[in-house]
Amino acid sequence: MNLPNSVTVKEVGPRDGLQNEKQFIQTEDKIDWINMLSETGLSYIEITSFVNPKWIPQLADAVQVAKSIKRKKDITYAALVPNERGLQAALEVNIDEVAVFMSASETHNRKNINKSISETYIVLKPVIEQALSAGKSVRGYISTVFGCPYEGEISIDAVLSVSDQLFSLGIQELSLGDTIGVANPKQVEEVLTKVLDRFPREKIAMHFHNTRGTALANVLVSLNLGITKFDSSLGGLGGCPYAKGASGNLATDDLHYMLDQMGIHTGIDQEKLIQAAIFIEEKLGKPLPSHTMQTKRSLCNS
C-alpha cells in the first residue's frame, strides 16, 4: 500500500457532532469540551455554526462559545457559515477558518439550505470573497457525494460540477461528504480517482459517516490514493439533521487508533482524546457509539 507518513485529523464534533442532539448541552460545557480537545494534539477543531438558531437551536450560543474558548496558536478554530449575516458574526469573534456548505443533490440542497444549487452559489460567492478579504481561509463542504436520501445515487458529474464551482469561487480546500454513510471502498476509489484527475490531492479532504460500518475501510482506500485530511467526530457523535438514518460520523478515537497502529503520525494523544470523550458522554447522558468507547466500557465492566 502507498500510505502517507502523516495525516491531519479535523475534529468536527463540537459542530457536526452536536448539531442534531435534542438535549441542549450547556454553553460552559461546550467551552470546556473544546478546551479539552485543544489539549489532545488536534490541529483543527470546528467549534460551531453561525446559522439561524431556529434551524439549529443546539448551536444558538455560537458567539459566546467562540469568544470564550482558550485558543492555542497552533490550532485552527473553524466554523460553518451559511450566509453573509453568519459571516459577520464569525468575523467578529475572529474565527480562523470559514466553512461553507452545499450538496451535490438538488433535493438535499433544498431540504438543507432551502435553495437550489444554482441559488446557493449566489449566496456563497460574497461569503467566500469577504472571508478571503478578511484574511481567513475558506473551506467548502459538499454533502451527499456518495448517495442522497431523496435521490439515491449521485453522479460523479454532479459532484465535479459543484466542486468546480466552489473552487472557482475561491475555496482553498474541499471536503467530500458521505452524508448518509452509504459509500463503499470501490465507490470511494472510483469517485476519488476522477476528483484527483481534476484537483490537487492536498486540497481534498474526506468526511465519512459510519452508518453501515464502512467508514474506516473508506479511509484506507483514500489513504492509498494520497488523501491526508479526514473529518471526524469524537466518539462517533453526530449525523445530518436533514438525512434520515444518517447516524454516526467517523469516530475520531477509532480513526486515530487505526492510524496510530499503522505508524501514521497524527500528533494526537489517545488518552487525552478518551478523557474528552468521557466528558462529553457524561454531559450527553448516553454512551458514544465509537468502537473505542464501547471497548473501554466493556473493559471497565469486566
UniProtKB/TrEMBL annotation:
<dbReference type="GO" id="GO:0004419">
    <property type="term" value="F:hydroxymethylglutaryl-CoA lyase activity"/>
</dbReference>
<dbReference type="GO" id="GO:0046951">
    <property type="term" value="P:ketone body biosynthetic process"/>
</dbReference>
<dbReference type="InterPro" id="IPR000891">
    <property type="entry name" value="PYR_CT"/>
</dbReference>
<dbReference type="GO" id="GO:0006552">
    <property type="term" value="P:L-leucine catabolic process"/>
</dbReference>
<dbReference type="InterPro" id="IPR013785">
    <property type="entry name" value="Aldolase_TIM"/>
</dbReference>
<dbReference type="Pfam" id="PF00682">
    <property type="entry name" value="HMGL-like"/>
</dbReference>
<feature type="domain" description="Pyruvate carboxyltransferase">
    <location>
        <begin position="7"/>
        <end position="274"/>
    </location>
</feature>
<protein>
    <submittedName>
        <fullName>Hydroxymethylglutaryl-CoA lyase</fullName>
    </submittedName>
</protein>
<dbReference type="GO" id="GO:0046872">
    <property type="term" value="F:metal ion binding"/>
</dbReference>
<keyword id="KW-0456">Lyase</keyword>
<dbReference type="InterPro" id="IPR043594">
    <property type="entry name" value="HMGL"/>
</dbReference>
<keyword id="KW-0479">Metal-binding</keyword>
<comment type="similarity">
    <text>Belongs to the HMG-CoA lyase family.</text>
</comment>
